[in-house]
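stage 2 :: seqdesign
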C-alpha cells in the first residue's frame, strides 16, 4: 500500500504478543468516541465533525510490565 506507515502495517498484522484485548466503545452520537479512538491510537485529532457510519477500528500495541499487549479498539455509534 503506497504511503502507508510500515509500523502500522506491522502492528495490525503482528501475531507476536503476550495479551490481546478487544475494546468496544459505544455511546450517544457526537460525544467524541471516534475522536478518542484516533487520539489514542494515532495521536491525531481533527476538529472536523464526520459522523461514524458503521464501525471504526484501530489496532495499537502497547508494552506494560515487560509484556506486549495488542489492543483492538472498535467504535460503534
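stage 2 :: out
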Amino acid at each position: 500500500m503506497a504511503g502507508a506507515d510500515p509500523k502500522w502495517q506491522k502492528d495490525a498484522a503482528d501475531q507476536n504478543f503476550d495479551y490481546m484485548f478487544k475494546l468496544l466503545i459505544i455511546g450517544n452520537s457526537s460525544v467524541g468516541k471516534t475522536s478518542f479512538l484516533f487520539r489514542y491510537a494515532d495521536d491525531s485529532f481533527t476538529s472536523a465533525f464526520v459522523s461514524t457510519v458503521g464501525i471504526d477500528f484501530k489496532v495499537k500495541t502497547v508494552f506494560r510490565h515487560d509484556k506486549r499487549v495488542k489492543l483492538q479498539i472498535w467504535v460503534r455509534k
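stage 3 :: structure notes
- The first helix runs from residue 6 to 13.
- The beta strands are 19-26, 55-64, 67-76.
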